Structures
1.
Amino acid sequence: MDKMLDPRHVMTGKDGQVFITLSDGTQLFLAEVDTFEAQLNIQNTDLQPVGSMQVFAVPQSFTVSLSMSEVVVREDVILKPLYDALRNGYVPYFEICGKLKRPADGKYDRQVFRNCLPDGQINLMSIQPGEIVKRPWQFRVNAMPELMEYLPTIG
């Protein structure tokens, strides 16, 4: 008999958490983050050898990017360190960790992203009557992501 999907193992956004490591090494839960996404982008170059109809992909490089949206509750975790660093002539790096917990068995998927550099346009303040104030963030990850814990196959 074919195994069916067991919905007890399906994860939703409520099963995820995002943490940031502070300058003193403390990991702080970012409860105000309402969306989080980490993406790997692999770039290939085409190669078509003489006499071949087939074009082959040759790996060249990869990038990792993070995006998240925070409900503005506090400014001291990401925005203040950014302002302080810019005032001193540099852009700060952050360490960000995403974590998923499978509800049925408590197994974790935890990935750590080090040397995260803010990237692109940063919305410093956007206010609209009747709307929740949010700040989107984009980061480029300048270190290989680490898979600290992973979700094994359910046996």
Note: The chain has a mean pLDDT of 92.
2.
Amino acid sequence: MIIVSDTSIIANLLVIQRLDILRAVFFKVLIPPAVNAEVMALEGIGTDLSKYKSADWIKVVSPKNELKVATLREVLDEGESQAIALALEIHCELLLIDERLGTKVAKNEGLSTLGLIGLLILAKKRNLISAVKPFLVELKEKAGFWLGVSLVEQILKDEGEL
């Protein structure tokens, strides 16, 4: 399965020191250079990147269609634009992206997307983690990952954790 990722999922998992979840669900993840730069910038705010730097299963691949990247840049940031352009070029099966506008644009381009919560639910379904709730709490407390109260309740209810 060919997977391309934007920054958010990788960054949030690094902040809570659980990049291993991404590796357990997907054996190889491609990212564009802008996403790599955004992740590397986390080191400047004290995030431990040792697991990221040694992750030989994450490959940096440059999108070739600069015009597509430039067009996407009219509404999205560089990382999202490169990730969507790369995903389109290589016909990836799944784009990992959280941001609402980026997800909408990706879906309008015909891409299948999955966000961090979807990744956690998938990890639980595959018995890689036992519950989603502890991760939601940790993401909120350590990474500032925000979800509305009603959405959290719905997720926990759907997962049998409420």
Note: The chain has one domain: 3-117.
3.
Amino acid sequence: MKLIVPLVLALAATARADDQFELKATDATVEVGGQTSISLTIAPAAGKVVSHDGPLKLELGGGDGLALTRRRYARKDAADPAADAPRFDLKIKATAAGDHTIDVDARFWLCGPKVCRPIRAKRTVTVHVTEPAAPPPPP
């Protein structure tokens, strides 16, 4: 019984954290050999901010059929590092046709008016890679 109570409390804390922020990401479509960026924003709920002092790390995984320019990002890599809702442009290059996924593992501190809590969140982003368009026939 002593082990169940902490587990239930930990699961409840995780569930409460989910409605206090959102990892917003856009799926992308790109041709084989092309490059694109996926925009990922850590959007806190009203009254919350992503800590400017605590660590913020993104780690990317997966990406078969994709070449990831970087696998790790920090707050300094955000479009505006001072923003309360940092946005990252995740650069990728398509190497094979098909639907491919990128797994994003985000770690940051989410702060309210009095307290900050460590957050670990995961998100999967889909990248649709198409074959290049055939060149027009010669005249």
Note: The longest strand covers residues 116-130.
4.
Amino acid sequence: MGAGSLLLYAPILVRLVRSRSADGLSEATWWLQLFGFTTVCIYNSAKGFPLAAYVETLSFAVQSGFILLAILLLQARPGRPALRQPHVLAGIAAYAALWAAAGAGLSPPLLACLQVAATVGITGALLPQLWMNAQRRSGGGWSPITAGLSAAGNAVRCWTTMQLTGDGILLAGFAAGFLVNAALLAQILLWSSVPDLAPVAA
């Protein structure tokens, strides 16, 4: 799964590079993905779980960061530098604070709260994308390969989590991830031949 995870978001990255457009992709989704996946990695590491329990999540965090950066750069306009927008600077500061807190050590209750927040964040990350797709009646810029692999990967992770860690918080997160990715895949398959009717802000 670790090797396969390297290809999960590749179709989206390829489309961004080729089209030089982030149209159809929700910036909010990728901020939430970045924070959520990073927090899951911090949680697993702090709990002393084997790397096999979260190596693909680490890969997703890195890929999410690259996609978010690409979206920000592609949405830049003259006089509106992508990385100097107030919400971007706030996001970068919050991300740095997350790593600083992890480095300082987190108490078990706080660690559990962060993992629950990460689960909600990762699951909720797709809601802006699902909403945008519903408004446009389109699969947007999301790849059916990515959605399909995400749904399948979360289903597999439900089983491996029960085998490797038995952690109920992680199990609930993977189950929720399966549901939202399955919904995204259904949208893509349903509306794959429907062109975007109008641009919608991310």
Note: Residues 2-191 form one domain.
